[in-house]
Amino acid sequence: MTPGPDGRIRPHIFVVWVEDLPGVLNRVTSLFRRRGFNIESLSVGPARAPGVSRMTIVVRTDATTARRMLVQLSRLVNVLRADDITNEPAIHHELAMFKIQATGEERTQVIQLAGATGARLVDIAPESVVLEATASPQKIDGLAEVLRPYGIVEQVRTGLVGMARGAASVMTDPDARKPPKRRRASSDESGGSHSV
Amino acid sequence: MTKRWRRTGAQLIWETLLGEGVHTVFGYPGGAILPAYDAMLDYPIRHILVRHEQGATHMADGYSRASGEVGVAVATSGPGATNMVTGIATAMLDSSPIVCVTGQVGSALIGTDAFQETDVTGVTLPITKHNYLVTEVDEIAPALHEAFYVARSGRPGPVLVDITKDAQQAFTQRRPRLGKVDLPGYRPEPRPPESELQSAAELINRAERPVILAGHGILISGAMGQVRELAERARIPIAMTLLGIGAIPANHSLNMGMMGMHGESWVNQAIQEADLLLALGMRFDDRVTGSLKTYAPNAAKIHIDIDPAEFNKNVRVDVALAGDLSAVLAHLLPVIEARDRSEWLGSIRGFKGDTAVRDIQNLPDMGKLYAAHVIHDIWRMTGGRAIVTTDVGQHQMWEAQYYRHNEPRSLITSGGLGTMGFALPAAVGAKVARPDDEVWVIAGDGGFQMTMCELATIAQERLKLNVAIINNGYLGMVRQWQEFFYDRRYAGTPILSPDFAALARSFGLGGEVVKTRQEVEGAVERARADERTVVLDFQVEKEDTVYPMVPTGARLQDMIRRPGQEADGDPESEEEPVAAGRTVEW
Hints:
The complex is a heterodimer. Chain A is of the alpha+beta class. Chain A folds into two domains: 10-88, Alpha-Beta Plaits (2-Layer Sandwich), CATH 3.30.70.260; 91-157, Alpha-Beta Plaits. Chain A has four helices and nine strands, in the order βαββαββαββαββ. In chain A, strands 5, 6, 7, 8 and 9 form a five-stranded antiparallel beta sheet that branches. A four-stranded antiparallel beta sheet of chain A has the order 2-3-1-4, covered by helices on one side. In chain A, a hairpin with a 3-residue loop joins β6 (120-124) and β7 (128-135). Chain B is α/β, with parallel strands linked by helices. Helix content of chain B is 37%, strand content 16%. In chain B, α1 packs parallel to α7 (137-152), α3 packs parallel to α5 (85-93) and α17 (371-381) crosses α24 (517-529). The longest helix of chain B is centred in the first third of the chain and has 16 residues, at 137-152. The N and C termini of chain B lie far apart (76 Å). The model of chain B is unreliable at 565-582 (pLDDT under 50). At the A-B interface, α1, α2 and β4 of A face α1 and α7 of B.
């Protein structure tokens, strides 16, 4: 990726609210594919309003291209709203699980390490333990670094999700508009503005 | 006793289309769309059987561009739908509102690689404005209703509705209630803030050397009158994009003509020397800007477009006004001051210089048949009032240069995608939309062969078109690039053609071969007088070139000009038709 005129390449965090309909995820990711972006992470889940999904997408790019992507995202018919929250005061967390092969003394050390870093011990098996942590990606990176010498045999990271700090912000869920329940077909036969 | 309301999905397709004002569809039947075809016979729908589904989409596109209404194409699943891809992409790139209705295999079979199954919504996702896969009978009417709304609102574009066979066959007793479309995330008509309108007005009023860049958006928005008013009051010269042709009459005293790669060099020079570019419903395509680094370096730029995604995409602009052009101009016009600007108009006259003399249109034919002369003669004989459709390539540029369109929606051409084979089916659509207008196809010998099967459609529908094939035995524009940039190595460009006139006759149409300038007038006269569609095979100079030309990536003012020796000839004595009956500003 070549940097645009005004900026260095860095991770940009997009929060995208979409109608929860089949194929919408494909429409969103297809946009990134068309422009040749590699999505670093993407997480999707239900938003507060029924029928609305909230995506957090992380893409490495420059500011100009990020602005362009945002406009392109907003153009999609099923996208309710798209924000670039890279520069917003927000909590950016991801969840990670690490499976460590450890017995004896090493095992004790790993468990102590977990306590010291705020990671939780979620599984203990004879040959291995599983640690879980929820933190910023940087902190997760740090945790992975200190665990590596003990032998990480498996890891999973959800990718980042974000929420703005404070009571209200640009990131308030766009549910006040109207529920996207629009495939209504009424059995009422008493006419309508454009009945067929 | 009243019988309870009851419909099949197939019936609802046609009832919804009729509700949207559709009376003609262009289509081709097949297994997965059979229920819809069966129901069609019970509704007042004119079905035009195409010979290839690409033709159906181009016809719907041509219909739309000629009328401003949504064109409709119908096809079956699998190959029927994939054949539509080129036409859909063409409509997408040129913001043309069409709705494609495709049959899909039964919903139980989806994903099983069933006979004639293709993931059509997947295939067309990046080339439609939006698309729908409908598997329930009760979703058919709302999806189609929404499709028409999305296709025609905001920046128009193609919408595809893929309907499974079982949904078409199923009965419902729920009468669809189609009111206002409720799409919470869709904002088709943005409004620019007042402050931006103010900045734009100030830039326009202050400018000494402004140029209006007139694009397709003017036609789509119907802002022709307002643009003229703006230009006339503020005395701003106008340059047109290819798709903007017709937005401002060619004979308007402030209209300079086409800009860009094959625009007039003096028009491009005016753009390069401008201190303000006022871009109206255009998108700074690479074919109009040349090198972006050197594009209009001293000009402030105001961009008015309904699609905010176009702002700062190719060219950085100072003021961007997002909105429907007509609505934006309604706010802007009251604050635009009347100005004289005769000094600027005088400079442009200076740029023009001897261009007209060098123009091949005004050169003698020396016994040869030039495409420019053919098109010029067609223009003269049709009084410039025909609807002309073109493909892409040399003939398209010559048409844009030599057929002078005074009416909106009179040039229908594939601009953005540059689709060969567009002209003939697009002309069918245009003729169906405007049966009382004279329609001409101007196509090359290459592109014509891509969709010439639609001659059979024309014969079956008894449509009256006039077809001019600019036949030079080459894929001419590619050959021209090979001539300039590939050392005249003509790889894959010589093309053999059938006897087009005889071919036309085999369809029951008229056909004639034209080899000299003297024969042109008679042939055009006979073609126009004939009740049938007539194909004129103009066998023109083989290695003629479209001049002037901005090489890709070059500065806009650095154009390759027609070589001097040809320009030395005396201008033809024939009257200069362009100037007839108007005040020429340049």
